[in-house]
Amino acid sequence: MDNNILSLSLTITQSYGYLYLIHEESQSLDVFKNFKAEVENQLSNKIKAVRFDREVERRNRTLKDMVRSMINHSTLLESLWGKAVKIIVYILNRVPSKAVAKSPYELWTSKKPSIRHLHVWGCPIEARPYKPNEKKLDSRIVSCYFVGYFERSRGFKFYDPSTRSFFETVNAKFSEDVELKIVDTLEVLPTQVMEPIQVHEEIYKDRSRGILGLLQKAYIDKVLSRFGMSNCVPGETSVAKGDKFSLHQCLKNELEKKDMERFPYALVIGSLMYAQVCTRPDIAYIVGMLGRYLSNPEIVGYSDSDFVGCLDSKRSTLGYIFMLAGGEVSWKSVKQTLIASSTMEIEFIACYEASNHGIWLRNFITQLRIVDGIEKPLRINCDNKATELYYKNNQSSSKSKHIDIKFLVVKKEFIVLKYQLNT
Q1: Coil, strand, or helix at residue 206?
Q2: What is the DSSP letter of 186?
Q3: Burial level of 321, CB count in 10 A (0-12/13-18/19+)?
């Protein structure tokens, strides 16, 4: 078969392929005549035109690539490439393509092809060939390889490497799922455990259910002992019916934070999360719910201003900075737009600029969904007691009548608890 020349004829309209293996190019005309007679007899139509274009060349290249892969995957000789390419064309005629949803076989014959009989080319087979001169004590089974299909029947073609011959039969047992035998020539190191080892998680086995798993009871007991909860009364459920959680329940002042340092809340939640992920799905809800309230981040602002820092324009320079979760997130320093007559007035203007930016910053962070929500009022710190008293006093005095009305907006925001001012 080494001298075969690959010749492929295609029906371009439906991509159904015919394959013929010939020894010489001079046989191409006779092969085409046989092909023409067979196709015209099947379709009851005449071939009107014959095209020789790149379609055949591309198809031949595809077939060669597939043959190369099939031979490398199997253990058969390269001289059997002719059998491989025939089975490739056989399969391609029965599978759809990206261009057409139906297979070429279905388009050609108007019948849906069956693929139940398809097998891996080159797989080992135990087959029983027909032997007319077979004796009673002769072996009836031959170890061979699958190489093709019958064209118009349900049989298969096999190759017997012992006799280097081909035969056809329907009596065969395919061994496509047999695991590969690995011959390990390396020295096997001893794996015997000479002393007991300590396993932190208990392993349990249920042969009837086919289960091998972990039991973290020892880990849970260790967590309870670590946080002094071994003597707690157990409950039927992880959370009582009707319990609700809110950010308003978080710590509200420094005194509460100082008192809460005695309870390692975050460590308890983190320890339970390990058990939740591994073996305790029943506590997933409550652990995830409590984990949302590990902290309640708030925005804290600081504002300040000098007094007549610019000797040329007699104007003051203000500055403010905002912190979230202990880190700086926004800051600014700018010269004031007016000339103030007192330190209270310049500090008041600085707080105005800081409060405007702080309210926008809180809304912006909430929209980014960095945190679930910032429930606490915006807290701004300044270093002028007179400014704080003027904020909290809803009355006007002769000393503050000249302050622009736009700066008085912050007093209204203070009244509706959008922020609070501390010194």
Answers
A1: strand
A2: S
A3: middle
